[in-house]
Amino acid sequence: MPRIRVEVDGATYEDDVEPRLLLVQYLRERLGKVGTPVGCDTSNCGACTVLMDGMSVKSCSVLAVQADGHDVTTVEGLGVDGQTHPMQRAFHEEHALQCGYCTPGMIMASLDLLRENPDPSEDEVREGLEGNLCRCTGYQNIVKAVRRAASDMREPGRQEVTP
Question: N or C: which end of the chain has fewer CB within 10 A?
Fold first, then answer.
């Protein structure tokens, strides 16, 4: 069995894993990071999106062995000193969730979007999140939340885009 070493939400883990174990399974079943949901299991919905070395990946399409030597951030790793991340706050304050199932993936994909474009237009947000599906909200408030977070995160003294 391959042995991996991966940093997840600031903590380093070393584990023996089955070669076919998916990253989403490793995060949920081995590390207890249940904030990363299993959505469609086919990489279509984006609910399982996490950041790997700062870039969004659908953790149902990445093997745990592929995360060896990398830094993974889940939605649970975003807050600092008990404070929610500006993106998490914006999703809450803009009512950008309904059932909440897609929310972790939307938040993580949004952070990657802002890493590339810190001031996206509405159309750019929609395009940037096209790989993440929501069946409840109609996306209006999600777009508002991402733009609000982008504005908040550009303010001096606010948390940086990268967690």
Answer: N
